[in-house]
């Protein structure tokens, strides 16, 4: 009977996890993060509702695995290239004093948030709400990266300075609070290990990183990454379990090992297909079980019947808001009041790390189960309210009409012509070595060329070229092009395109995720197309209806057929490139995540379609 009951409870939880996103879509409740909705649905089937689900071995195991995988994906979300970009931009501070150094100001803001959280935590201790200042400080200072990232992407602010500041504050908070949570456990848990043993965990992480970095580009790894082998996925799960085991061995919480595994995978820069597989497995199966079970375990009625806990809910929400708004107000020196207040509200959102802290605190008997439930309830409320307030307050003009920056290195007949054609949809900037005065007079009258001393990677870094969205390298020397391309790929997050005529060098650069073009190949291909299909030339040269490539990154349209695609406008789908396949689109063709769509149409409609499809909407927010 117990076995039957456990399967029944699991069945109910799985059905609820399946129905939740469908109900959100059906009733157009897209402003509610799916994980929050799953917790709410868990309330209906758990202690606060019909009491249909009870803890058992099945659910406890799967819920624990879901929690570990959530922490793993939390670490995987951290994009360390953001730190590199900010360091480079700091070199332009003297040129553009109107905007702050993002990395430096983000660090200052987080320090302010932590100090404010510490002061507010003492107030909660003095008023008798909680006994542990350390735990309360972590709870107030944490920020949900999983809410911040999709909100910034939806508002098209990821590439702006203010967007990068908000993102970096959340990233720093994610890293620091997770590490401090591990320190908290090692100090207060009588069954835990010594704090110094945590160094063994981080040392193991460093060793595994170097091992992974050495083997990831080996040919046998690529050969074993397809079919039934899927060596990349196996390696990730092995890394996860190894670090979780080491974490428990040294007396730390297992979630720290899972989080560290995610950070290491992020540092190893896996391909997007692998990340998509991991997201699909985690957010499609394990993580929903965990969040539904969070709701199942909450007893709302006991929380609401306790006046002290009822009073704590608004007070804690105010503390979360004050701890972010006060430090963020330093940005008022560069931005308007609405932007600053909106940023403070977005940074108030918190969820998974609060759940982690509350769960650990309850296990260690530092807080009561009722207090743990109250903390989780406050985190859920913050995740629902803060993104809505941010969207209402943040000035829309700040993110509208932003053009992608294209840095073209090397002034020649080709790049000069391309620069003129790109100006309507992009922000092209041309860089060239210092020219003779006679030559300079001719070019400067038509083009804005920034002169550099030479084409060395160091000189280009001083010009902040590597922070451009797209970098095109077309100097007269292909070895110089390759050198710059490799430096740009290492230091910048944008696309890198290099002019290379040597097939061997071309193959080497392509393996490093560098796009390559050849003048000879392009000319040959165009001439052949002109001979075989003369009409193609009109499509390629017509500025109003030329071909465009758009990458499909919006989860909302994943699996949708072109027949059902809601976008209307003067755009025709010409080809869909999926991996190595080239698909001729028709009404029943399904769009897939990371598809590259070749479309033609007027610039206005193409740009609108690009905004729709390249908008990343995360199905789950932490």
Helicity level: 55-70%
**Residue share in β-strands:** 5-15%
What is the subunit organization of this protein? single chain
With strands numbered from the N-terminus, the spatial order across the biggest sheet is: 3-2-1-4-5-6
Q: Note the gap between the termini.
A: 36 Å
Name the average pLDDT. Answer: 80
> Helical segment tally?
26
Sheet/helix structural class: alpha/beta
Rg over C-alpha atoms, rounded to the nearest angstrom = 26 Å
The count of DSSP E runs of length 2 or more, i.e. the number of strands, is: 10
Q: What global shape is seen? A: globular
Main sheet characteristics: 6 strands, parallel
| Uncertain parts | 85-97, 437-445, 616-622
Structure description:
The chain has 622 residues and is an alpha/beta fold. Helices cover 60% and strands 8% of the residues. It is built from 26 helices and 10 strands. It has helices spanning 2-26, 34-45, 57-77, 81-89, 102-126, 133-141, 145-154, 161-188, 198-215, 219-223, 231-249, 254-267, 272-297, 300-305, 307-328, 337-347, 352-363, 369-393, 413-422, 437-444, 457-462, 478-491, 503-510, 519-532, 535-541, 603-613, and strands at residues 404-409, 426-433, 449-452, 470-473, 495-499, 515-517, 547-551, 571-578, 581-583, 596-601. The strands form 2 sheets. It has a 6-stranded parallel β-sheet with strand order 3-2-1-4-5-6, sandwiched between helices. The chain is globular and about 80 Å long. It starts with a helix and ends in a 9-residue tail after the last helix.
């Amino acid at each position: 009977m117990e076995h039957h009951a456990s399967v029944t409870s699991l069945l109910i939880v799985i059905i609820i996890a399946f129905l939740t996103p469908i109900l959100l879509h059906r009733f157009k409740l897209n402003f509610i993060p799916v994980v929050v909705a799953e917790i709410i649905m868990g309330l209906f089937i758990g202690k606060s509702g019909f009491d249909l689900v009870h803890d058992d071995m099945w659910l406890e195991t799967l819920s624990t695995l879901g929690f570990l995988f959530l922490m793993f994906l939390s670490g995987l979300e951290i994009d360390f290239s953001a730190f590199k970009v900010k360091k480079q931009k700091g070199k332009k501070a003297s040129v553009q004093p109107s905007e702050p150094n993002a990395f430096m100001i983000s660090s200052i803001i987080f320090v302010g948030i932590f100090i404010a959280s510490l002061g507010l935590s003492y107030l909660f201790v003095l008023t008798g709400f909680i006994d542990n200042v350390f735990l309360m400080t972590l709870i107030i200072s944490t920020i949900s990266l999983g809410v911040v990232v999709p909100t910034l992407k939806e508002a098209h602010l990821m590439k702006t300075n203010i967007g990068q500041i908000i993102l970096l504050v959340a990233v720093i908070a994610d890293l620091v609070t997770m590490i401090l949570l591990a320190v908290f456990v090692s100090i207060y848990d009588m069954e835990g290990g010594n704090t110094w043993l945590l160094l063994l965990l981080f040392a193991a992480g460093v060793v595994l990183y170097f091992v992974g970095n050495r083997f990831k580009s080996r040919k046998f790894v690529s050969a074993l990454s397809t079919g039934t082998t899927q060596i990349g996925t196996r390696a990730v799960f092995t890394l996860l379990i190894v670090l979780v085991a080491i974490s428990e061995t040294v007396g730390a919480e297992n979630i720290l090992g899972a989080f560290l595994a995610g950070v290491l995978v992020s540092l190893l820069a896996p391909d997007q297909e692998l990340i998509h597989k991991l997201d699909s497995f985690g957010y499609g199966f394990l993580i929903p079980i965990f969040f539904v079970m969070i709701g199942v375990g909450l007893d709302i009625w006991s929380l609401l019947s306790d006046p002290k806990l009822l009073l704590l809910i608004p007070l804690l929400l105010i503390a979360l808001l004050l701890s972010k708004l006060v430090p963020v107000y330093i940005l008022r020196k560069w931005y308007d009041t609405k932007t600053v207040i909106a940023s403070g509200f977005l940074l108030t959102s918190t969820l998974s790390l609060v759940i982690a802290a509350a769960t650990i605190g309850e296990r260690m008997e530092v807080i009561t189960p009722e207090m743990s439930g109250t903390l989780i309830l406050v985190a859920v409320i913050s995740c629902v309210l803060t993104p809505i307030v941010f969207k209402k307050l943040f000035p829309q003009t700040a993110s509208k009409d932003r053009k992608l920056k294209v840095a073209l290195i090397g002034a020649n007949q080709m790049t000069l012509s391309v620069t003129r054609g790109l100006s309507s949809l992009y922000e092209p900037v041309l860089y060239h070595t210092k020219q003779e005065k006679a030559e300079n007079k001719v070019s400067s009258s038509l083009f804005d060329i920034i002169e550099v001393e030479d084409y060395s990677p160091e000189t280009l870094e001083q010009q902040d070229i590597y922070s451009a969205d797209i970098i095109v390298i077309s100097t007269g020397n292909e070895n110089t092009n390759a050198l710059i391309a490799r430096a740009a790929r290492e230091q910048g997050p944008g696309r890198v395109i290099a002019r290379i005529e040597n097939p061997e060098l071309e193959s080497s650069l392509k393996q490093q995720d560098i796009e390559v073009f050849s003048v000879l190949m392009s000319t040959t291909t165009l001439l052949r197309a002109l001979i075989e299909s003369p009409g193609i030339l009109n499509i390629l040269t017509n500025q109003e209806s030329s071909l465009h490539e758009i990458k499909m990154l919006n989860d909302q349209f994943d699996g949708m057929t072109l027949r059902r695609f809601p976008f209307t406008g003067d755009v025709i789908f010409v080809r869909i490139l999926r991996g190595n396949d080239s698909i001729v689109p028709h009404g029943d063709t399904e769009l897939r995540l990371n598809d590259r769509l070749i479309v033609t149409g007027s610039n206005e409609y193409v740009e609108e379609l690009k905004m729709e499809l390249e908008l990343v909407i995360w199905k789950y927010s932490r």
